[in-house]
Amino acid sequence: MELLKLAVLCALCVLPVTLLRRKTPEQALLLTAAVLTAALARCLAAAAPLMEEISALFARAGVETAHIAVLLRVTAAALVTRFCADLCRDGGSQALASAVETAGAAASLVIALPLLKAVVEMLLGFF
Asked: Is the pLDDT of residue 69 over 80?
């Protein structure tokens, strides 16, 4: 149901954005950013129970909570990168979108480094 509401919100925004883009592209970009922010807020609210379920699942499996935090931060970095790159493309700058995507990939690697270290230490423990 939540997905349907978000789809309707975005679909209703397409016409005004298209009309605004012809005369005032900066207002079209601002409207897109506002709808995107509203959609992201709704997604985060809907994901709260999912986070509890994931935490419980990982606790049953014996996975450390620090690893869960790394997973969630990398996911958040990917989503923020995607949204920002899409906004840059909507604003007409493919180069900025590529720069945002590159920065997001680098940030994800930096965020995931503790997890990578733990995996390497675990593998070295087997050998």
From this structure: yes
What does the alpha-carbon distance between residue 31 and residue 63 come to, in Å, rounded to a whole number? 42
Helix 94-126 / helix 65-90 crossing angle, nearest 10 deg:
160
Q: Give the SS3 label for residue 85.
A: helix
DSSP three-state, residue 120: helix
Cα 36 off chain centre by: 11
Take residue 39 and report the two structure tokens written for it.
């959609």
Q: What is the pLDDT of residues 114-123, one digit of tens each?
A: 888 888 988 8
- Residue 107's nearest CA partner among 79, 126, 88 is 79
Which parts of the chain fold into alpha helices (H)?
Answer: 2-23, 25-61, 65-90, 94-126
| Contact (Cβ atoms closer than 8 angstroms) between residue 66 and residue 114 | yes
Question: Which of these, 108, 106, 107, 121, lies nearest to 64 by C-alpha position?
Answer: 121
93 in helix, strand or coil? coil
Distance of CA 29 to the CA centre of its chain: 19
**Which of 84, 78, 56, 80 is closest to 68 using CA atoms?**
56
